[in-house]
Structures are given as structure tokens and as C-alpha cells.
């Protein structure tokens, strides 16, 4: 008998008590850059509205909101009760659930988004199961999009923020570079796995997706923005620097070598027919 997948308690408490995920993509410049770029990578790949979108790990429904407003019928699945309550106010429907065992029927969604689960599943077998479930519930030929955090994101982030001058942070960053695993409590995030671009391609291709493309979400200049915001103690959203970082991300998207500079990567592919 297969056991119900359990969300690690440290991930549950991180999203329930430590951070408010509902403001992550609007309160900071690098968050705003992630939102704009995610929208511009997704929009041209989505089927015409109305279409059925399953947003797995959809959190408080930031993407569910703009997708619903654009006419898509969106259902959010997330293991954090606070997120499910927030997502249910966005125009989407929402339920508690886990990417590794979806309640949705097979072949039922035109689009399946996995913008979060892959980087919170530390074991390859769990990520494979989440991708297999996304492929199962996608209609034949449907779009599946999965997000990853880049392996080098911690290095770039801490150069810009803590200046890497504390041994504890430097050691945590060094361990992520080596293993890809962020252990909870070592710095300001929870349990996570950070992909190399090649590792992400390999995982989504193994799940049976075809026509796979991998995109640089924030591109090479997001940490410059983050550093400017951190040290100037001021928002740089909407500034010339923000527009430069956005243009850099757009330019970088055509150059696979630059994928490694991005904080997030998006892999898009087609479910088997
Ligand atoms: C950083 S948030 C991203 C939220 C939103 N998708 C976005 O892109 O802004 C990561 C999300 O993944 C969810 N998550 C973590 N583990 C998961 C799992 N095993 N199954 C489904 N969702 C999971 C978390 O609850 C959280 O809402």
C-alpha cells in the first residue's frame, strides 16, 4: 500500500509562520522581476483561454489570479492550508494536496504548472513522482511547466546581500554549490533542492515530456537589483536598473550558457500524446 506523501514539517512552518508568500513577488524588485518574466515566458505558450490549468504548488495564488483574470479556469493544489485559503480568493478553486499524489483525473488539464514543488522535494524519486503526476493529469499534448531554483542562486544572492562575510553563510553556500541541497535553518530559506540547468532538463525529459525548452526567469542581473535594494534600503522597482535587469533577462533567454546565472529556471514541455 502506498503511503500518503507528507510535506516536511520545516516547509509547512516556513510558509505558515516564517514568511508571507503572498507578497514575495510584489514586495521586492527581484520578486517583481520573477513575476513579470514568468508571465512573459508562460503567456505565448498557453493555449487560448478558456482552458483548464492545474497550478500545483500554486501557493497563495499569485499566478492563479492573473490566469483567472485572463479567462483560464484555474485550480490550485498546495499542501499549506494558509496558501489554499489565500488562493481560493483569487478567482481560482483550491484544495490541499501534494504534487506527488494528485487527486485530479488522468488526462484532465490543458496546462499543469509545477512552480514550486520541484525545489522543495530533495529526493530525486520524489521529484520524479511529482513530474509523473503532472504528466498523468495533463491532457495528451498538454503543456507542463516546472520551475527550479538555480544551483548558483545562493552564491549570487549572498554576494549581493550578506556580502559572504560570515563563515556560517559562506559554508552553507559552499555546501549548496556542492550538493544542491539547502538544509533548513542554515540560512534564510527552508529545505530545498537547487538544480543545475542540465539536471533540470534531464529530469523533465525523463518524465516523458517532449519539445522541452528551459528558460532563464530573472536572467543575469537579478542579484544586482537585490543588492541595490538591500544596501540602499530603498525600492528599485520601476527604476532604470529594474528595466535594465528585465532587458538582460530577455536577452539571456536565447543563450543556454547564461541559464546558470538565473535565480529561477522554467522548463516547459509537451505531455505525451
Ligand atoms: C516559493 S512557493 C511558489 C508559489 C507559486 N507557485 C509561485 O511560483 O509564486 C513554493 C510552493 O510550493 C509548495 N510546495 C512545497 N512542497 C510541495 C509539494 N510536495 N507539493 C505541492 N506543493 C508543494 C509550497 O507550499 C509553496 O506554496
Task: Characterise the protein shown here.
42% of the residues lie in helices and 20% in strands. Helix 3 (29-42) packs parallel to helix 12 (240-252) and helix 8 (153-160) runs parallel beside helix 11. Strands 1, 2, 3, 4, 5, 6, 7, 8 and 9 form a nine-stranded mixed sheet that branches. The protein is of the alpha/beta class and 273 residues long. The radius of gyration is 18 Å and the shape is globular. It has a single domain, classed as Vaccinia Virus protein VP39 (Rossmann fold, 3-Layer(aba) Sandwich), CATH 3.40.50. Bound molecules: S-adenosylmethionine. Residues 7, 11, 15, 21, 25, 56-59, 62-63, 78-80, 83, 98-100, 115-117, 120-121 line the site of S-adenosylmethionine. S-adenosylmethionine binds next to helix 1, helix 4 and helix 6.
Model regions low in confidence, pLDDT < 50 over at least 5 residues: none
Mean pLDDT: 95
Spatial gap, N to C terminus: 30 Å
H/E order of the elements? HHHEHEHEEHHEHHEEHEHHE
Assign the CATH class. Alpha Beta
Number of folding domains?
A: 1
The number of helical elements comes to 12
Q: Would you tell me which CATH topology applies?
A: Rossmann fold
Helix content: 40-55%
Total strand segments: 9
Q: What would you call the structural class?
A: alpha/beta
Q: Major β-sheet, in short? A: 9 strands, mixed
Overall geometry comes to globular
**Ligands, ions, cofactors:** S-adenosylmethionine
Residues in β-strands, percent: 15-25%
Radius of gyration: 18 Å
Give me the CATH superfamily.
Vaccinia Virus protein VP39
CATH architecture: 3-Layer(aba) Sandwich
